[in-house]
Specification:
Layout lengths: L1 E2 L6 E12 L7 E10 L8 E7 H14 L20 H20 L1 H4 L2 H8 L4 H8 L7 H10 L11
Antiparallel strand pairs: 1-2, 2-3, 3-4
Helix pairs in contact: 4-5, 4-6
């Protein structure tokens, strides 16, 4: 959890509940629930919950690097060798690494100001839809996308205990 200098403002981000999708197929992958709870003015919704897969985290890191200038962007945990499959220990280590990545990102005010980060954490838009929204190629703003997702109740799922 990140505590800002103002002790009353907080951002809690949790990466949890890894789930294997498309099990038994060549297109299987693991996605993770990202639960966010905050009272920070930086965020549109104060509670949100989305599911993201590793390659979406890779995309987010590249986008943050592109716009962060000289600000260092935290590292992601490594990619699994193809032959390794979906090993439970590996998935847990990756989950911990993804959580650490997001915790470090939200601690940095420069990274925290990136609207792509907010859409990643608080909407279920695909990465291509996030890019299109940010450059104005959608008929909704980032704030509208986040509020729409929050109001749909899908973004209000309760946090699971770890």
């Amino acid at each position: 959890m990140f505590q800002s200098l103002d002790a009353e403002e907080f951002i809690t981000v949790r990466v949890q509940d890894p789930k294997l999708q498309n099990e038994g197929s060549w297109t299987s992958y693991v996605d993770y629930k990202i639960f966010l709870h905050t009272n920070s003015k930086a965020f549109t919704a104060k509670i949100s919950c989305v599911r993201r897969r590793y390659r979406e985290f890779v995309w987010l890191r590249k986008q943050l690097q592109k716009y962060a200038g000289l600000v260092p962007v935290p590292a992601l945990p490594g990619k699994a060798p193809f032959y390794m499959g979906n090993n439970d220990d590996f998935i847990e280590k990756r989950r911990q690494g993804l959580q650490q990545f997001l915790e470090q990102v939200v601690e940095n005010m420069v990274l925290l100001s990136d609207s792509q980060l907010h859409l990643f954490l608080q909407s279920q838009l695909s990465v291509s839809e996030i890019e299109a929204c940010v450059i104005g190629h959608r008929n909704f703003t980032a704030t509208e996308a986040i509020l729409s997702y929050a109001m749909s109740n899908r973004g209000w799922t309760q946090e699971e205990s770890l």
